[in-house]
Amino acid sequence: MTSSRVIEPDELEPLATGAWILGAGGGGSPYDGYLNLRQLYRKGTRIELMDPMALDNDDLVAVVSTMGAPLVGQERLTDPTLSVKPVIAMQEYLGRRFNAVMPVEIGGGNGLEPMLVASQLDIPVVDADAMGRAFPEAQMTSFAIHGLTMYPMALGDIRGNAVIVQKAENPKWVERTSRAVCTALGSTAPTAKAPRTGREVKDCGILYSVTRAINLGRTVHDARARHADPVTAVLDGEGGRLMFTGKIQDVDRRTTAGFLRGAARLEGLDGDHGATFEVDFQNEYLIGRRDGEPTVMVPDIICLMDSETGEAVGTETLRYGQRISVIALPAPPVLSTPAGLDLVGPRAFNYDVDYRPAFIA
């Protein structure tokens, strides 16, 4: 890959599709972000995608996402002028401008968030993130796994509010403090996470994840164009595993303390006829059980896909009767290290089970 290139107009929709799959049900729907980007591109805007290895060591990189419960995002829509607010607040706090921007997570709408910021600040988007997927809590990043500080952090809202979390005892306290602010701001808020240097991004980031999302989306779109099975195409292209095929029978969903929590129950179809599958979520899908036995869990990327279209189904868009293929995709290796599992493994979500990759027979 060259040091930078323009994200082409025909890559925007594949980016949204791929980011939605990598979101593991979370990160918020990318649809509003995609519409914003399409409109910006029609007006002549172009976003530069930068190879992370082209960053200078002392470059300053903004790390952005929208924090909160995905269900609330259906009421408070994405807006570039809103997305950039906490980044501007962070620049004012630091007394320094950012050289580039990147997503904290490539999943869902948050995978498109830096493009909206880039359009307002005229800076490139780094082809990297800090999760390789989406996770519900602010400290669940490759930067925290490597022991980097997770503050300062900025949050903004649609009003005139901007809040800086200047310091915190540890990464978990960054999450607790910022989540309380987010809840007060309406359970959703754009954020600028702790700024990263170019050296930190190169050493500790999940590299080339934006490109992965674009390629993943293209895989789905190409399969549709060929009238092939998009779910199978994704599994073949990503080395994934089909965990269950079924129809949604029940959804228990609630928004509490800035998270969308709940579970979905599926009744098996085709080769899974007679079996049941339950999946828990906290913004993202966390653990899946076939007939009560855990078969897939974080940090593996658990994705519920429409069995016909290959479109990802987010935790906020689960509906009775949907025909679903539950798949598992490999997560970045750093997430399954001992330090990674401490932050993002099943026990980090209070499940009394040790991580077992879905790709072990």
Q: How would you describe the overall organization of this protein?
A:
This protein has 361 residues and is of the alpha+beta class. It has two domains: 4-209, CV3147-like fold; 228-349, CV3147-like. Helices cover 29% and strands 27% of the residues. Helix 1 (12-22) packs across helix 9 (209-225), helix 2 (31-42) runs parallel beside helix 5 and helix 9 runs antiparallel to helix 10 (230-238). The two termini are 35 Å apart.
Fraction of residues in H or I helices: 25-40%
Coarse structural class: alpha+beta
Shape: globular
Q: Write down the domain tally.
A: 2
Strand percentage lies at 25-35%
Report the major sheet: 7 strands, antiparallel
- Summarize model confidence as the mean pLDDT: 94
Return Rg in Å: 19 Å
Enumerate the strands of the largest sheet in spatial order, edge to edge or round the barrel: 16-15-14-13-12-18-17
